[in-house]
Design brief:
By secondary structure, the chain is α/β, with parallel strands linked by helices. It is built from twelve helices and eleven strands. Helix 4 packs across helix 5 and helix 5 packs across helix 7. The protein is elongated. Bound molecules: adenosine-5'-triphosphate and nickel (II) ion (NI). The site of adenosine-5'-triphosphate (ATP) has 15 residues, from strand 1, strand 2 and helix 1.
Length: 313
């Protein structure tokens, strides 16, 4: 097992209230698997990623256990693997590059940090090789180019070259396709799957088509996992009412918005967090509804490979 989360919990103290951003998340990621996380805005996707990468803000309090290759992921271990075996893909490629350094210099500097034993000639050579790996056609020209001379797509490739310099085992990408048109998005996703073929990928997205490119899919709602399973199965045959309604809110499935809003994370309901917006809830009898409103449903594997947090799914 590459990464394992056991009851990961993240709270924020905001003034006098406590905001439950991530609640008891259990999650396992094996080597080379591609996992997508989807869910509406504010459901805790980025906070979960930040907790794994150890970059939570100061007002966050985390609990639970994270293990990396079956060893407790201590701050010390995290310092040795971050930026190498565990890397993050930045959201805005052009903005993430230093405007006063050439593309080659930046990747070469990353290499110097990760592999201090390399000579500068070796770093130059390795950088050109990395540029080739990410599909940059004229590595020498790109090496000498400043960020403003690169297109968005080229900048993305330069950043990915820097990311694979450390031969990552896990790559976390938080909405890498945000704001891109469909063509660029498809190219980017394809490129990431090529470049990170040997790595595990945790891909946070709002985009169901992007999620469909992964093997596993995790659906989050109000800080919790509500459904987890194979991406193919979950997208074809969603079990949790939230997943069904989320998929139906997508343009390709009729654009039916989910009514209402997610609960306030500073005062969560005792029962199911989705009950007030749930289409299935409305079809239940009174005693079934009572269960939804009073008992918090556990995430249970209903016999198949998919796990669902719902009393009645
Ligand atoms: N530093 C912080 N202080 C207080 N609350 C925070 C902080 N960072 C995040 N939150 C809250 O934690 C919750 C989860 O936020 P998060 O950014 O993980 O959502 P998300 O699923 O990534 O949403 P989006 O899709 O919009 O990126 C939100 O309610 C957010 O307001
Ligand atoms: Ni986010």
């Amino acid at each position: 097992m590459l990464l394992n989360l056991d009851k990961l919990q993240v709270y924020f103290t905001v003034g006098r209230s406590v905001l439950q951003a991530v609640n008891e998340v259990d999650l396992s990621i094996t080597e080379r698997t591609k996992t997508a996380i989807i869910g509406e805005t504010g459901c805790g996707k980025s906070v979960l990623a930040a907790a794994i990468a150890g970059i939570l803000p100061d007002n966050a309090q985390a609990s639970g256990t994270i293990t990396w290759e079956n060893t407790l992921l201590s701050p010390k271990l995290l310092r040795t693997i971050r930026g190498k075996e565990l890397t993050l893909v930045p959201q805005n490629p052009l903005g993430s590059l230093n405007p006063v350094l050439t593309a080659g210099c930046q990747v070469s500097e990353t290499l110097a940090r990760i592999k201090p034993e390399l000579t500068s000639a070796e770093r130059y050579h390795n950088t050109l090789e990395l540029f080739g790996t990410v599909g940059l056609a004229q590595p020498g020209t790109v090496y000498r180019a400043y960020p403003h001379q690169l297109s968005g797509g080229m900048a993305q490739r330069v950043l990915l070259a820097a990311t694979i310099a450390g031969t990552p085992k896990l790559v976390i990408a938080d909405e890498p396709t945000k704001g891109l048109d469909i063509n660029t998005r498809n190219q980017n996703v394809l490129l990431m799957h090529q470049v990170f073929a040997a790595s595990a990928l945790l891909l946070i997205t709002h985009d169901i088509e992007v999620a469909a490119t992964c093997n596993s899919l995790i659906v989050m709602y109000a800080g919790e996992l509500v459904e987890a399973g194979s991406a193919k199965e979950v997208l074809k045959d969603p079990l949790h009412p939230y997943t069904c309604q989320l998929l139906h809110s997508h343009p390709s499935h009729g654009l039916t918005p989910i009514p209402g809003l997610p609960p306030d994370l500073t005062s969560l309901p005792a029962g199911c967090r989705f009950a007030n917006r749930c289409a299935l809830y409305n079809k239940l009898n009174n005693s079934q509804k009572q269960l939804c409103l009073t008992e918090h449903p556990p995430l249970k594997p209903p016999g198949s490979t998919t796990a669902v947090r719902c009393w009645h799914a």
